[in-house]
Amino acid sequence: MPAGIARRDGVLHVDDVPLPAIAAGAGTATYVYSASVIRERVARLTAALDGVPHRVHYSLKANANGAILRVLREAGCGVDVVSGGELHRALHAGFTGRDIVFGGVGKTQRELKEALDAGVKLINVESDSELRLLAALAAARGVVAPVGLRINPEVDVENAHHYIATGEKGHKFGIGLPDALRVGREALAMPSIRLVAVDMHVGSQLHSFEAYREGMSRLVELARTLRADGAPIEYLDAGGGLPVPYGDEEEPDVAAYGAIVRQATAALGGVELLVEHGRYLVAASGSLLTRVLYRKESGHKTYVICDAGMTELIRPSHYDAYHQIDAVGDVPGRMTADVVGPVCETGDFLGLDREIPAVGPGDLLVVHTVGAYGVAMASRYNARPLAAEVLVDGSRWAVVTAREQYADLLRHEVASPQWQEA
User: Does the annotation mark 344 as catalytic?
Assistant: First the structure.
């Protein structure tokens, strides 16, 4: 059973709260997060980095819920954002500019201006053209932009899906390793740029830490050369990518990971280590609570049709991802079934050919480990309002994002357009 989940008197609980109580009070489908699991993950990662100056920056793209951000801020984290909207969310949650690293491969002029205006700790640029645009925007504002170079270290990446590998040669992310020194020297010649960091992110759900070892070695070598050229390198940014178990896999060896990035930091010297983890900090904290609508037989298969589907959790369909599914209550009997949603797509499923209790209409199911890239990738496809979000903290719980209503689907439509002539 994932962290924070336990069966007591035949009923699944998140921390000390029975899931049927949340279903009764908040309805279904609902995302349920455990604050205690998030705090424990932050503490475990922080302990692995002990021994060098460092800070954990949470990657908002995994889950930008405001209540989760406040838990992370109170636990001492900074944040990593990749859009103006994420920057807005971070500031609204109480983070200051110095808490924020701004990354992303396609920042707009507006977003770069917003980053400068917010006084962020670091803007990680991903191309020489972005660097030139940022230099011009900073000069126009009369400020000096704190810049990191996101480098594509061009290492071999072993992970769960090629969509979440980002550090191999030819990927769209970062500045190619052969161009890194040239771009760094270009930055050094710009009066409105202060080159203070080198950065990488090799991907997510890494099967091996060798990509970290090799990538960090290349970052350190680049940083030393840039320092010799006069760059005031203050930060070594290792990105994120620690894996989480979705089934019966083992937890990652965070101590071994920590040893690799600490060793690189110590070898360079005089820098603060930054890490930007998202999935590792929040995935295990989240569960998707859903109610069975129907059970039917078709083509020698059993289907369990729920009120949650690909609109609430697209990972099974998009990444062929596995998420453990359990019945919330004690249900007698077992069966093999496809657990699917109500969306009009054959690809709308939460799990295929699963051996689960013989649930029927009205029973509750829980899909585990959805705290990362669950609500963050949710959609309103089929005009389905977005689900509610609940935070559990010990024996108490609260709705932290209200369930959308039908009216919310129409909120931004313009009933009487103001036509303009071409």
Answer: yes
- Shared-domain flag, residues 270 and 287: no
Give dist(CA 79, CA 72) in Å, integer: 9
CA–CA separation, 218 and 328 (whole Å): 48
**Beta strand segments in 72-178, E:** 78-81, 100-102, 122-125, 145-152, 175-176
pLDDT tens per residue, range 63-110: 999 999 999 999 999 999 999 999 999 999 999 999 999 999 999 999
pLDDT at 146 over 90: yes
Q: Dihedrals φ, ψ of 310, to 5°? A: -65, -20
On whether the CB atoms of residues 285 and 42 are closer than 8 A, the answer is no
Query: For position 381, which CATH number holds?
Result: 2.40.37.10
Query: 263 and 288 share a domain?
Result: no
Look-up of token digits 């209503």: 405
Q: Domain tally for the chain?
A: 2
Look up the domain containing 165 and give its range: 96-277
Global confidence as pTM: 0.94
User: Facing residues of 203 across strands?
Assistant: 165
Residues 6+ apart with CB under 8 A from 396: 17
Same domain for 334 and 263, yes or no, is no
Of 226, 229, 209, which is closest to residue 268 (Cα–Cα)?
Answer: 226
Inter-residue contact 13 to 19 (CB < 8 Å): yes
Query: Which residue in 9, 10, 110, 344 is the catalytic one?
Result: 344
CA dist 101 → 233, 257, 414 (Å): 15, 21, 36
Looking at residue 171, what is its pLDDT?
64
Domain check: are 268 and 291 in the same one? Answer: no
Q: Are residues 366 and 255 in the same domain?
A: no
